[in-house]
Every structure is written in C-alpha cells, then in structure tokens.
Design brief:
Blueprint: H1 2-11, E1 15-16, H2 18-25, H3 30-43, E2 50-51, H4 53-75, E3 82-87, H5 100-116, H6 128-131, E4 137-149, E5 155-161, E6 164-170, H7 175-181, E7 189-197, E8 200-207, E9 222-226, H8 238-248, H9 255-263, E10 264-270, H10 292-303, E11 310-314, H11 336-340, E12 344-346, E13 351-355, E14 358-363, H12 367-374, H13 383-393, E15 422-425, E16 432-436, E17 439-443, H14 452-456, E18 465-470, E19 473-478
Parallel strand pairs: 1-2, 6-8, 9-10, 10-11, 11-12, 14-15, 15-17
Antiparallel strand pairs: 3-13, 4-5, 4-7, 5-6, 7-8, 9-18, 13-14, 16-17, 18-19
Bound molecules: 2'-deoxyadenosine-5'-monophosphate, fe (iii) ion and zinc ion.
C-alpha cells in the first residue's frame, strides 16, 4: 500500500510530503481518499506538484461538507405520519363472564346487519319472526347456528336473529348457490333472500356483507412485513435474520435491493415475535432461550439495530399476551427493552393502523386453522384465499370457539369495519401475496424452520422470505 500510494501520485507527477502522506494513510478509507483526491487534483488541473498536509485537510473539509447532507438524511429521524385507527388494547373491559356473550354476539350481528342492509338485494329486511309466517319472498339477516347436509345432500342450516330462528334450506339443484353455501361457516352473519316452504326457508340468495373494490393508494415509501420470527426457539433462523437486519441497514444485497432498503419507512410485525414458553406440551425441548423475558430481551437486541424505521408490533398466539382475541398489545412488563425503543409502536391483534395514509389491517391469523379445517378448498398453503374470504365476510374470526379463543367482549373488535389498503397476516408460516379488489393481501411467512409439530401436520414453511411493498409493488426478498 505504502509504495502503491506514492507511485500512484508519482504517476500523475505529484509528490507527497511526509505529513500529507501520514495524513492520508491515517484515514480509515485511505485508498478511496487517495483516489478521489487524485481525481480532484487532475480534474481541477491544478499544477500542484507537491501535496502538503494542509491541502489534504482542505480536501477533507470539502468532502465532509459535500457528504454531510447525504449522511445526515440517512440518520435524520424520518417524518412519520403514523396513526393507530383501531386498537382493542384499551377497550377490552370484560373478564370473560358468560353473561357478556349475548352482548358480544348482539354487537357482531348489529355491525354486520348495518353493512348487509345497505345492499340493494336487502332493502326490505324483516325480523325472522315475521319470515316464519310470510307467504312472500322474504329478506332476512341472520347469524348461522349450525350447518349440516341432509340425506339427499342438500344443505340445511339454522339462522337466527334477536326475534327468532328458522331452518334454511339450500337445494343442491341450485349449483351456484350451493357452492356459495359451502363457504358459509357457523356464527357468520349473512343476508338471505328466500321463500317459505312449510317450516323452512328455501334460499334463493345468500349474501356476504362483501368488500368494495378500492382505488389503489399511491405510496412514496416502502414497508416491510414480518411475522413468526419465533425468537428463542432453537429453530429460529438467526443467521438468515442477521442478513435481513443487515439488508435493512443498507449493507446487504445488490444495488437494487439496497435501494429498496433505503426506501423503507415502516416495519410491521404480525405476531409470534418470540416462541414463548409453555405454548404446547414439551416446548421446552425446542427452546434455545427458556425464559420469556430473555426472549424479548433478545428480540430487542436484534430489532434494536433498526433505528430509522417505525416498527409496529402486534402479538400472536406465542407471545406473552392473553390468548383470547382481540389480544391486547404486548404488555410492557414482558418486554421492557422493546418498550425502551423510541421507534416501536405496540398494537393489539387485530388492529388497524395508518402508515402515511396506507391503512393496514394487522391480524396474526389464528382463525385460519379453523377455516382450513372447516371449509373445502381452504388450506394453510393458500392463506390469500382465506384472507379474501374473511374480507367478503367482513370478519377476521367468524367461527366462534374452536381453535380460536375469542374474548366475550361488549364489542366485537374482529368485525372488519374499515376497508384496508393492506391486509397483513402471519401464523401459517407460508408466504402468500395477492392483490384483491385493490387491497394488498400479504402473509409474511416465518423465520423459523420446520418444527416437530409441523412435521406431523405436513406443514412446510417458507422461511426467511420477506415481503416488501415497494411503492405499491410487491417484492419478495430471500435471506435463506
Ligand atoms: O403455528 C405454526 C403453524 O402450525 C402454522 O402453520 C399453523 C399451524 N398450527 C398451529 N396450531 C394449529 C392447530 N391447533 N391446528 C392446526 N394447525 C395449527 P404457530 O402459531 O407458530 O405455532
Ligand atoms: Fe407462528
Ligand atoms: Zn401463530
């Protein structure tokens, strides 16, 4: 290096004095400095032939001035237009006593009734009590009580409102309707157009509240979506995660990928940030960090490297929260170090936030287990289809009391009241992406390799693949 440096300048007919030489070689990036200094001297056609320390200092000062705005803009806190539109954390009052269930279901019914009765097909909705007597075509809104197939393979379900209930028959001759009815689940609220046949209501139409097509929102930034990092598990893919963090800091990947990293403003985490403890029998054996506080400490150590983006954290079924949904935000007592971070926001599961105008619905995805078990054609592999179905039903966990514990709140926070721009989920550990009616449906996969449990159920996770919404277009970055 030493003779190299002298020769390099000598080639351009420039001599270095001792002090200048030492000045240059004492810099961290001496090689780059020498190159740009030389370039600058040649460009300016200065007939310098002896380079002094003073001249090097001058050049360095100029360079700092030139550089500073760029460096600063990277380090300067970004301006965030961030709002929490809907968060259930502070609104959960109940202790889950049985008497609250009736108000919980009444609230679910009422919210969905309001949406359904805005539809043109349901302008004359009557109470079910009236439908029991009516001779004409009737329109009702009901909560589905149970669904079964008759001997002749028609579908028979009971629907209910505050005034009464009535059996609803879906004839299998009506192919389209029958197909629609196959996606109906228990506890869902539907609109029905039908006519009375004896004690039955024969359905001619079954309607979901539905979701309108929206204009895609313009984005002048990028957002990164994560879930199911399962920090603390022995199957947490730490090396891949370190590559992800490095990329986020702009130090990993090709030029295009680094450019995307520099554009990232928000990082959303949809639950299962740590593996937790006692989530399933024998979990101990699969844990690298066996203490819940230390798991969150480790999470804070890792995410602590990211200081220039806003991080939004919602809990999942492995986090240190109550399991019943809506899950309130992660309590501070479990994650004091994460709470110390000024750029972190804690929200409930589910929640709705606005990131510079992009309305993002965050839901971990526990109800996917129930839907995959119940509805033909739905599975963990295609959570985008499940998300689409939930949007049309306007409810995040329509089936009550199977694998998804729901809290008996006064209000049903799982009704999808606002139409989001982004619907972000996790839980299934399999990435998916689809644009549906202008809404980005994103499942952010996992940073956990296949667990013993998943081997038994033949769930093959897609690991270390991170979806980035880059100014409206989806990029899946792989860190495995
Ligand atoms: O969920 C990890 C994976 O396991 C995910 O694909 C869902 C699946 N899973 C979890 N619990 C169940 C139940 N009870 N039935 C079916 N499939 C399930 P995680 O939440 O990370 O443990
Ligand atoms: Fe998970
Ligand atoms: Zn989960």
């Amino acid at each position: 290096m030493t003779t190299d440096l002298i020769l390099k300048f000598a080639d351009a007919d420039i001599l270095l004095d001792d002090a200048a030489y030492h000045k240059i070689t004492s810099q961290d990036n001496s090689k780059e400095l020498a190159d740009s200094l030389l370039k600058d001297l040649i460009k300016n056609e200065n007939s310098v032939y002896l380079l002094t320390e003073e001249m090097v200092d001058e050049f360095l000062e100029d360079k700092v001035e030139l550089r500073e705005p760029i460096i600063q803009s990277k380090l300067l806190p970004q301006e965030f237009d961030f709002q929490i539109i809907h968060d259930a954390s502070k609104k959960s009052y109940t202790n889950g006593e049985i008497k609250d269930f009736s108000s919980y279901f009444a609230n679910r019914y009422h919210k969905l009734w309001q949406m359904l009765t805005k539809k043109k097909e349901l302008q004359n909705v009557q109470p079910i009590k009236n439908a029991q007597r009516s001779e004409d075509v009737v329109e009702v809104v009901g909560m589905v009580n149970n669904i079964r197939n008759t001997k002749k393979n028609h579908k028979l379900m009971e629907i209910e409102d505050e005034t009464g209930n009535i059996p609803l028959l879906v004839h299998n001759d009506n192919h389209q309707l029958y197909e629609d009815a196959e996606r109906i689940v228990k506890d869902q609220v539907v609109g029905v157009v039908g006519s009375r046949k004896g004690s039955l209501l024969m359905a001619s139409q079954i309607l979901n509240p539905g979701i309108p097509r929206i204009d895609e929102k313009e984005m002048n930034f990028s957002a990164v979506f994560l879930s199911d990092t399962h920090i603390g598990s022995s199957t947490f893919l730490e090396e891949a995660f370190q590559r992800f963090l490095k990329w986020m800091r702009g130090d990993y990947g090709d030029e295009v990928q680094r450019e995307i990293a520099n554009d990232v403003k928000y990082l959303v985490i949809a639950g299962d940030i740590v593996d937790g403890i006692g989530v399933y029998p024998g979990q101990d054996k699969e844990l690298k960090i066996k203490d819940i506080y230390q798991q969150y400490e480790e999470a804070a150590r890792l995410f602590g490297e990211l200081s220039n983006v806003k991080i939004i954290i919602a809990p999942g079924n492995h986090d240190a929260c109550r399991l019943a949904e809506p899950q309130p935000a992660l309590p501070e007592e479990y994650a004091p170090d994460l709470y110390q971070m000024k750029n972190v926001e804690f929200v409930s599961n589910p929640s709705l936030v606005s990131m510079d105008g992009m309305k993002t619905l965050i839901y971990h995805g526990r109800s996917f287990d129930d839907l995959a078990m119940t509805v033909k054609g739905l599975s963990h592999q295609n959570s985008d289809i499940i998300m689409k179905e939930l949007l049309e039903k306007r409810h995040l966990a329509p089936i009550y009391g199977e694998r998804t514990p729901l809290a008996s709140e006064i209000e049903d926070h799982l009704v999808i009241e606002d139409v989001p721009d982004v619907f972000h989920t996790g839980h299934v550990h399999i990435n998916s992406y689809k644009k549906y009616k202008g809404i980005h449906l994103i499942n952010s996969g996992t940073f956990q390799s296949q667990t013993e449990f998943q081997k038994i159920y033949n769930i093959v996770p897609t690991c270390a693949q991170v979806p980035v919404l880059n100014r409206g277009s989806m990029k899946l970055l792989k860190f495995s």
